[in-house]
């Protein structure tokens, strides 16, 4: 019960800042990049990134990679719950991110770039799971495109690509890659 209340409190805390409400309004109907949001709000890019992280951690914002930019959109499913449902506990809320995961990502990802590949396996796995989210499930990617996407995050895209395949987050056949969903045995191009 305490965890449920903690998650619900994080939900309301994320909504408690005017800048975050503005970001949710701007991204309600369309996904926008951080630079565009900074321009629309008049806030510094770092401030926008901070608020987007708060919204994402509470499950109120989603993000997807589109070429060279990360697009953010309000999670309307989570936001459509009524106050009665939220307080009464009738609506399951998106789980707030694991604090360890959040700390690792903040330590190794700055301004949309991976500062370095973590040496510790547990931290590296957290970063790799985040990078796997750059690839859409069900879509095929030629190796050159995988390299380009990962190269935007870190110069050593070879290691990142190899590690993603090694963790069964991406699968590969004949130079074509795809994001693995569910069990690796069930994945196929």
UniProtKB/TrEMBL annotation:
InterPro entries the record matches: ArsR-like_HTH, DUF2087, HTH_ArsR_DNA-bd_dom, Metal_resp_trans_reg, WH-like_DNA-bd_sf, WH_DNA-bd_sf
Keyword DNA-binding: yes
Extent of the signal sequence: none
Domain HTH arsR-type: start-end pairs: 1-94
Keyword annotations of the record: DNA-binding, Transcription, Transcription regulation
Top-level taxon: Bacteria
Cross-referenced Pfam families: DUF2087, HTH_5
Coiled coil stretches, renumbered: none
UniProt-listed PANTHER family: ARSENICAL RESISTANCE OPERON REPRESSOR ARSR-RELATED (PTHR43132)
NCBIfam families linked to this entry: HTH_metalloreg
Stated name of the protein: Biotin operon repressor
Organism name: Deinococcus radiopugnans ATCC 19172
């Amino acid at each position: 019960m305490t965890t449920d209340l903690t998650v619900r409190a994080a939900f309301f805390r994320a909504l408690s800042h005017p800048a975050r409400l503005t970001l949710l309004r701007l991204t309600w109907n369309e996904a926008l990049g951080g630079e565009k949001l900074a321009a629309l709000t008049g806030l510094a890019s770092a401030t926008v990134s901070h608020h987007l992280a708060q919204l994402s951690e509470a499950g109120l914002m989603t993000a997807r990679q589109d070429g060279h930019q990360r697009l953010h959109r309000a999670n309307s499913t989570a936001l459509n719950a009524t106050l009665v449902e939220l307080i009464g506990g009738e609506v399951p809320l998106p789980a707030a991110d694991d604090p360890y995961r959040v700390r690792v990502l903040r330590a190794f990802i700055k301004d949309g770039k991976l500062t370095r590949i973590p040496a510790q396996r547990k931290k590296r796995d957290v970063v790799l799971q985040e990078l796997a989210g750059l690839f859409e499930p069900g879509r095929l990617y030629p190796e050159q495109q995988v390299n380009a996407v990962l190269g935007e995050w870190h110069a050593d895209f070879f290691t990142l690509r190899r590690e993603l395949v090694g963790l069964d987050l991406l699968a590969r056949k004949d130079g074509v890659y795809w994001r693995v969903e569910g069990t690796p045995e069930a994945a196929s191009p």
